[in-house]
Amino acid sequence: MTQTIAVIRGDGIGPEIMDATLQVLDALKLGLQYEFVEAGLGAYEKQGELLPAATLDAIHRHRIALKSPLTTPVGGGFSSINVELRKRFDLYANVRPAISFPNTRSRYTDIDLITVRENTEGAYIGEGQQLSADGETATLTQKITRRGSERIVRYAFDLARRLGRKKVTVVHKANILKTTSGLFLKVAREVAQQYPDIECNEAIVDACCMKLVMDPQQFDVIVTTNLFGDIISDLCAGLVGGLGLAPGANIGTEAAIFEAVHGSAPDIAGKGIANPCALLLAAGQMLDHMGRCDEARRLRQAIVDTLQARDGLTPDLGGSGTTQDFARAIAARAAG
């Protein structure tokens, strides 16, 4: 069965890691078809728009997109293209696993946790930003809703149940932010009561960060609000070797976008040394979302086996291979 997905090749190293990822996906013989569309700096330079209508239409039609990192030009347009995409398609759940892989530069070897981050409200989206006329005072509106809180917490518990996870930790700052974070925590407690088979813990965000650094194995699934989730998920990436191993899924009811969460790295663009693992792992999340779980496992196992064999590893992983060397090695294993 064939299925078409929208593909955004991105800026900087984006096209290089996307080509590598599609090479591996093709080796899996999934029957995927690709509609290539543009966004970011490249789209702006060619079409004068950061998010062309054709791109939005393709995501709407196919309901699934695979996206490389984008560069947002300074001085106009959206403050963040990623935030704009999440708002346009109501991609309320940001799902970022952090899993230990062999032969990586990481402090730990046995991490396996997931951060589920609310993606459409809270301080991160920048609503109500204002600067006073004298330039001395800046303000920002932070809005948390019962609906937004309920659906992200429920998503986290449903995900935990589906994956056989045993514990969800609700991360908040309700001791200080008594209305916004307080509402999130109140709703989370209500939802947790509906999942008696899953342990629910609570953690204040600063204490959570400390515990993640000292003893990350105590965590399983973490659910939190937008800004806290942005910080925590990057911290978790640091536990397993950095953003080069950090995929992200943005899930809504009508569409889903899967991405490498790192930046476009213009300083190494064109050098052929970018690590494609983050986007490859995002492609694995995409396959899970599509119900292609066996193929997703094959993809992840091919990555693990290639890292274990130190075959074609890029410089950030301690090797001397190119992006394409690494991709070819993974593709050969994925093809079986």
CATH architecture of the largest domain: 3-Layer(aba) Sandwich
**Number of domains in the coordinates?**
2
Low-confidence residue ranges: none
CATH topology of the largest domain: Isopropylmalate Dehydrogenase
Look at the structure and name the CATH superfamily of the largest domain: Isopropylmalate Dehydrogenase
Strand content: 15-25%
Structural category is alpha/beta
Largest β-sheet summary:
10 strands, mixed
Summed over residues and divided by their number, the pLDDT gives a mean of: 95
Measure the end-to-end span: 20 Å
> What is the tally of helical segments?
11
Protein name: Isocitrate dehydrogenase
Family: Belongs to the isocitrate and isopropylmalate dehydrogenases family.
EC number: 1.1.1.41
Organism: Arenimonas fontis
